[in-house]
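subagent[fold] <- orchestrator: predict structure for attached chain, return tokens only, no commentary.
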Amino acid sequence: MDLSKIKTLIDFVGRSNVSELTVTEKDVTVRIFRTPDQAASTAPAQVPEKAAAGPAASSRHASANAPASTIAVKAPLFGVLHRAPAPKEEPFVGIGDTVEEGQTLFIIEAMKVFNKIVAPRAGRILRLTDVDGSEVETGDVLAEIA
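subagent[fold] -> orchestrator:
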């Protein structure tokens, strides 16, 4: 399956009410899905998000013990997380940095497509995941913004 066909499928899911689409062509399967967070990316975080991370959160994710005024930035898709724009370059953000809404925080590489993960609001970075160059799952907490 070529990249233009994948891009067309991604655009279709983005424009429609479809929440998940799986397409198999020959021996390649593409799975595209939209989480409720993507539909309302500017909505403030709710308290249940913090409770969902709870004590079962692994050490590779940001802590769930954040003040109520924080918003968790979660991975919208499965892929390889990159904290910098290129190897041997400085990360997009660090702990304590002030970010603007829409500023790039990470890149997630999925099927050779690089997806920018942006700040949903302006604020200060309280916590960052220690994952870099490894896989993240959909819903993993990548950062917390106060």
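orchestrator: received. Logging for downstream: Helices lie at 3-15, 36-39, 47-53. DSSP finds three helices and ten strands in the chain.
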